[in-house]
Amino acid sequence: MIDNTATQTPPGPDGIPFFGNTHQLLQHDLLSWMTELVESYGEFVQLNVAGKRLVVVADPNAVETVLIDENECFEKGGFQKKVTASLLGEGLVLADGKQWREHRHALEPAFHPQQVARFAEVIQKQTARQFAGWSDGTVLDFDSEMQELTLAVIADGLFDVDTRSETWDLETSFAQVLDHFERVGQTYIYVPEWIPTPRNRRYKRALSELETVVDEIIESHARGERSEESVVSKLLSHAESSADWDRNAIRDEIITLLVAGHETTALALTFTTYLLGTTPSVLQRTRDTVDSFEESRFLEQVRECEWLEQVIDESLRLYPPAYSIFREPTTDVTLGGYRVPAGSIIALPQWAIHRDSDVFDAPTEFRPSRWTNEFASSVSPGAYFPFAAGPRRCIGERFAKLELKIVLGMFLREFDFEVNTETPLDVTPSLSTRPTEPVRVRVQRRPE
Predict the structure, then answer these.
(1) pLDDT one-digit tens code per residue, 267-291
(2) Which of 6, 55, 117, 383 could be disulfide-bonded to 334 (CB atoms 3.0-4.6 Å)?
(3) How far apart are CA 283 and CA 57, in angstroms?
(4) For the region Disordered, what residue ranges are annotated (predicted)?
(5) What is the DSSP letter of 382?
(6) Cα–Cα distance between 271 and 313 in angstroms, integer?
(7) How many whole angstroms separate alpha carbon 190 and alpha carbon 283?
């Protein structure tokens, strides 16, 4: 039972009339400011941003309350839905209650462990195709390359679509869509799409192009031109026996899977490559590990490799796909002894929590060796949650981790590389945690 007896609200910096703390947010780097606020005011901090009460919650026990123990009292909420509904509609990321349960149930078979294991060959095939286009000595915009690769993987694996043979330019559309959300992610200031600003016009054009492509994918499945085992075919079949599904619902889920299933994985690959390239001892151990795999058993051995799992876990700790998870309480609640009124925006900042020195020794260091089985089992789900936690834990976690392992393993076996460290790795909050500047990587094929 959720406690709602507290009367005191969390501390926080003083604001100014009407604007609250909005001006302070605009003057700071959001991720650094969140960390500074937690250091200054404690694990519960209250702000007034753009007329909304924002409560930053960095206490692992309270995170578990919100995401696991009392999750039914917290929903995605009005602000988050208002900002992203034009893109994600009523897809799995934004749906709540009965609708969320229905959609989750329909999608779960596609991400069953046995089904995910079958995607390994798709990942390997698309990765080999991506690497084949790289010339020795080329300096790559690595995130852009990984975005192209992970989009090809998700489209092939889930939708039976070969993006490389189509005339669509989904990456440009996605880039314009993400640009639209960067300003909101940095400031919490939302300009409704119906206001014809230049940014909004670009966004609506890109969204229209994306929706047109997705509609074509659905229609090609409906005509029987795609695999009957694809997610789209399964959803179309499900729609025939469920009043809760129609073409719009299917489109929302496909866009949600495309966005959530390729962008975050590409970013994780980019950040992990940067961290390996700037930590020689870890790179050498990781390369030695993947070099030891037998060619005929590569997929099996890379999937089971504990060291690669530790490298990925540590990368996701330092650079989680989302810098924060947001919820809104449906009733007044008490968290950490503080009153949080219904309708408040609760921010659960992985960026700050994952760098808590009480949990992680030398928290800013890239140290995969910390992730022994003993240590991993000692870390609470409220202290480390790159894929969220509780019933709404990311449905594609297994798929993402398998893809990360295979792509990293293949990359390290085939290429030597250098990361351009002249440009520091700064990040920008958007729909995900993104590099502020391109991550440049020079690649050279290793001798046979």
Answers:
(1) 999 999 999 999 999 999 999 999 9
(2) 6
(3) 35
(4) 426-448
(5) T
(6) 12
(7) 41
How does 256-294 read in b/e, with b if 16+ C-beta sit within 10 Å?
A: bbbbbbbbbbbbbbbbbbbbbbebeebbeebbebbeebe
Q: Which long-range contacts (CB under 8 A, 24 or more apart) does 24-28 make?
A: 25/49, 25/187, 25/188, 26/187
Distance CA 390, CA 394 (A): 9
In this predicted model, which residue has the larger pLDDT, 319 or 49?
319
Comparing CA positions, the residue from 124, 396, 148 lying closest to residue 257 is 396
Give the contacts of 178 (CB within 8 A, at least 6 positions apart).
Answer: 263, 430, 431, 434
Write out the two tokens for 225.
């031109």
Question: Which residue bears the tokens 């005339």?
Answer: 167
Can you give the C-alpha Rg of the chain in angstroms?
Answer: 22
- Residue 56 has φ and ψ, to the nearest 5°, of -85, 125
Question: Which pTM was predicted?
Answer: 0.94
Place of tokens 């921010």: 347
The domain limits of the chain are 22-428
User: Which class would CATH give 22-428?
Assistant: mainly alpha
**pLDDT tens-place string over residues 344-391:** 999 999 999 999 999 999 999 999 999 999 999 999 999 999 999 999
Rounded to whole angstroms, how far apart are CA atoms 181 and 171? 16
Residue 87's pLDDT band (boundaries 50, 70, 90)? confident
Question: What residues have CB less than 8 Å from 401, skipping those under 6 apart?
Answer: 309, 312
Q: CA–CA separation, 86 vs 248, rounded Å?
A: 12
Q: With bands split at pLDDT 50, 70 and 90, how would you rate the model's confidence at 98?
A: confident
Instruction: Output the 3-class SS for 234-247.
Output: HHHHHHCCCCCCCH
